[in-house]
Amino acid sequence: MGSKRYARHLVLPEVGEEGQNRLKESSVAVFGLGALGSTITDALARTGVGELKLVDRDFVEISNLNHQILYDEKDLDMPKAEAAAKRVNEINSDIEAHGVVADINPTNVEELVEGVDLVMDGSDNMELRYLINDACIKKEIPWVYTAVLATYGMTMNVLPEKGPCMRCLIPKKPSRGSMETCETAGILFSLPRTMANIACTEAVKYLIGEKNREELLTFNIWDSEFELTKVERRDECKTCKQNDFEFLEIEEDMISELCGRNSIQITPSEDVQLVLEELHGRFERSEIKGISMLKVDLEDYTMNIFKDGRVIVEGTEDPKKAKTLYSQYIGQ
User: Fold this and answer.
1) How far apart are CA 86 and CA 45, in angstroms?
2) How many helices (H) and strands (E) does the chain have?
3) Average pLDDT over residues 290-316
4) What is the pLDDT of residues 57-67, one digit of tens each?
5) What is the number of domains present in the chain?
6) Global pTM exceeds 0.90
7) Annotated catalytic residue, options 168, 182, 200, 237
8) CATH code of the domain covering residue 268
9) What distance lies between CA 37 and its chain's CA centroid?
10) 97: domain CATH number?
């Protein structure tokens, strides 16, 4: 099956048999499995990357189905990482896919990047990208930064010790509310797939030992305008020059509002492993989804409880209310 599956690559001079074998021996982590991450995952699976680590904190909702290509209606309310891994195994049984249902944060990001050859950015927020940048520079693991908004996309290869990091490009994390979001600016349907495939091309080039693009690529898909911008490695860069990995510092319990979702996520700072079957018995209306999540209906609110202790509370944008519900039903 292998030679037939990859026949178009085997006759392609840029890849060939040697390149395809290198892909088979490679491992890639995809952080975030939304519109970008699901397309990246689909492309790498079909390309024949031997091992994929698929990491996401969220679950599949009906609004995801028109732009996140790994999921369909049978996956609703399933953790995205589980649904994505199952789909990859259906696409290509020659490779291994591992779904990791987790919020990527300072307590686990270094462990999540361990053991892979490359990290792909499928995230939708800048805070996570600074975290990925710190972890990958510290561990000397290359990663591909990719972002989309409205009709614009950008992507840059971050190769530790060889070129600039994301913090050379954007030295300071933008303040909350200073940037448009997908909820306020929207995203053209074709943009995530286009940018994801451009990023995956760079991933394949790196994994088979070819030279990567050095510039930041920006694309306005509406006007079909590409632009390449040289990014210099800044001597004063706190991350890649000064080895100051401030985003890896462990904080208190992390409480974050999920963009446009009327939901709050609470992530415990300590290592937690909940027994969902035990929690299931405490509630009148609850259902275990997959192996990693328990969905609980509390009339005015819905609690999505994960094995790692995280909870996404739907129905409020008030962190205090979400924290109260967490303490009430999960404990301190």
Assistant:
1) 12
2) 12, 14
3) 92
4) 999 999 889 88
5) 2
6) no
7) 182
8) 3.30.310.10
9) 6
10) 3.40.50.720
